[in-house]
Amino acid sequence: MKPKKDKQHPSSYRPISLLSCLGKLLETIIKQRIMLEVERRNILPEHQADFRPGKSTIYNILRLERYAQNQLRCARRHSAVIPFDIKAAFDSSGTPQGFPLSPLLYIMYTADSMNEIPTHTEHGLFANDTALWTSSNIMTYLSSRFQQSVKMHSKVGASREN
């Protein structure tokens, strides 16, 4: 059950996927083989962190921190960040939460989600979470970039639901 939710509503409960130990072992072996091929073919976005060898959430946090410091130090520009959390990301994409293979399948499924964001907008992908950041000397440019980015990000998400 989700914390602080009404026990009477079905949406208050988190679905649990039960998998046998043998099933988890087989999924883990399959995941390792797929991951080797995905990395070899460079299928995943460069800035996809989490569930990848050698990259963690810290990778994108440090990228964002360096970006913000550079903008403040060099140009005294306005900067902003928009974080996205995809609701029920694994379950809504057909990859049940709790299965060893689910995170890899999900990030492969969403690998092209940042292809259409505008120039001068950076992004970081954290499994099922995304952060977009940008800066500008002019607030209206900053706002415009974010509006374009959110529109493109939402369009990709909506096309995946159909």
UniProtKB/TrEMBL annotation:
CDD domains: RT_nLTR_like. InterPro entries: RT_dom. Residues 1-162 form the Reverse transcriptase domain. Pfam families: RVT_1 (PF00078). PANTHER family: REVERSE TRANSCRIPTASES (PTHR19446). This is Reverse transcriptase domain-containing protein. It comes from Rotaria socialis.
